[in-house]
Amino acid sequence: MDFSLSEEHEMIRQAARDFAQNELLPGVIERDENQIFPKEQIKKLGELGFMGMMTDPEYNGSGMDTLSYVIAMEELSKVDASTSVVVSVNNSLVCWGLETFGSKEHKEKYLSRLASGEIIGAFCLSEPEAGSDATSQKTTAIDHGDHYILNGTKNWITNGGTAEVYLVIAQTDREKGHKGINALIVEKGMPGFEIGPKENKLGIRGSDTHSLNFNDVKVPKENRIGDDGFGFKFAMKTLSGGRIGIAAQALGIAAGAYELALKYSKERKAFGTEIANHQAIAFKLADMHTQIEAARHLVYKAAWDKDQGKNYDLSGAMAKLYASQVAMETSVEAVQIHGGNGFVKEYHVERLMRDAKITQIYEGTSEIQKIVISRSILRN
Fold it and tell me: Catalytic annotation on 363?
């Protein structure tokens, strides 16, 4: 058993860390406060190969493994989770979904542009009454021979306003239940496709979150991903990998909060010495470091399972459940260690605390992860 990273992995970590410090950190508070989408930063990430990290070079991807991807996600998320979630959705939901299950035409038409960062994509599953219960799709895609007519609403869609390509999950035959669901590729600008107002969020405020409305949108039959009725399986398989990306994001938020707290504790003095010398603070740092290291092992193990071709439903769910919990607890403690300064935006930890909460909710809530985990261990 070898826990060391390869030279390539270390280079990826350094490249992502440098980008985070030099390109993301400047302006991150302003982007958060004013809900500014990191357009220029995403463009540069595309040029550096971070928007299609696991995609085959044949389609303009970087051809890297999942471990490389989670390492990059961790470093970016230490500084700006709003940017890292854009990277996550484009990589693990959109690009991976199209490369794994899309047709050759889909890959040539969409994947090459998505993997290069020329355009970005969105994954559209959640609805007003179908979040965790993904089988209760109200959005319909009625078969009309050579095309579908799409009607319905999707909620909380990351990249909702800036994406050019949308992977939409919709019900074609309600009597078949989850076997009557399809996944369709919808392009921005298709008649009847409307983008709702931007959501005013607690955290990840720089990311672009919208509701989407589909009113008699005509979607060509060739835009369906997989066979008829494959949509639910497509969504579940894709989300299973997406959870690894969000687990890495949570890990990064936790690590970023810890690093800030550690630095501050060595500078801030109280009662004649640096607060790090007080056991009350030192023990908080010890707990944070231990929990982050444990979360990192879970995240890396899930990435390794995926790279080895093993089933990663269980390891991915455990990684997301625990890493998101650690992100929340660690960021709260980081604010506490900063004291009054922790409540001030310029110290960054209050933003990390707000960003941490969503990792327990999107791409499967913590409660859903426990369902996945419990079913897996009881089945075995």
Answer: yes
Catalytic choice (47, 293, 363, 367): 363
Task: Provide the residue-wise pLDDT of the chain in tens; the chain has 380 residues.
Answer: 899 999 999 999 999 999 999 999 999 999 999 999 999 999 999 999 999 999 999 999 999 999 999 999 999 999 999 999 999 999 999 999 999 999 999 999 999 999 999 999 999 999 998 888 888 889 999 999 999 999 999 999 999 999 999 999 999 999 999 999 999 999 999 999 999 999 999 999 999 999 999 999 999 999 999 999 999 999 999 999 999 999 999 999 999 999 999 999 999 999 999 999 999 999 999 999 999 999 999 999 999 999 999 999 999 999 999 999 999 999 999 999 999 999 999 999 999 999 999 999 999 999 999 999 999 999 97
Helix axes 349-358, 231-267, angle to 10 degrees: 160
Cα 174 to its chain centre, rounded Å, is 30
Place of tokens 């463009």: 43
Q: Where are the beta strands (DSSP E) in the chain?
A: 121-124, 140-143, 147-158, 165-171, 181-187, 193-198, 209-220, 269-270, 273-274
Neighbours of 110 (CB within 10 A): 23
CA dist., res. 134 & res. 178, Å (int): 9
Cross-strand pairs, 141: 150
Q: What is the DSSP letter of 130?
A: B
